[in-house]
Amino acid sequence: MGYCQVPQPRLVCAEYFASQVVVEATLVETRALHDADDPQGISAYVYTLRVDRVLRGKVGARLRVHEGNDSGRATFGWVRGKEYLLFLSYAPEEKSWELDGCGNSGPLGGAKMALAEIAAIKSAHGGGVIHGIVSGHTLSTPISGVLVEAIGKTGRYEATTNTKGEFQIDVPAGEYNVRAVKSGLYFYEADTTYENPRGIRIEPGGCAQVQFANY
Prior knowledge:
By secondary structure, the protein is mainly β. The protein has helices at 12-18, 112-122; strands at 21-33, 44-56, 62-68, 83-91, 96-99, 106-107, 128-136, 147-152, 155-160, 166-171, 174-181, 187-189, 200-202, 207-214. 8% of the residues lie in helices and 45% in strands. The protein is globular, with a radius of gyration of 19 Å. The protein starts with 11 loop residues before the first helix and ends with a strand.
């Protein structure tokens, strides 16, 4: 069973810096993997792609993407000969790359806005933004009026959550410890939060996403 980390939707600027490799690539081969105890079933797929352009990181002329055959699969279809924009992290146990099925990877033809954001990131200077949500323990109940602080070597920065429980803090590039504070309530990072609020790093033009919950 797959699941989406929070908060959603995944921001391009956050996924870009969280990914080891971001590429434009063309699918050349699809291979199904079968379990030894269930030879008729498909446990996963391995996609071999030709790398057409590297937008972040270093990678060879070809790469393999491993994708489990479960609800965490990508929401788009894989078609041989089609071009894709992929945000990838390496999975040593699979000796392949993996993508976030809830992220911004997808067919290149529909990636115009994502590519524009990446181009803006590459030319950016200065700081970035910490985005997030503060919610109840179910993650679906927003909590407004919560003070969120980002503390780093450059200083202390803060914002207050709106009626949707959302906050946004503009900060200089650097590392930050982020916490949510409201009298009578205690907040912890959600189990499925994208970033660890106690170790957020903001690159020039970058951003991060974190979700707090009241347990």
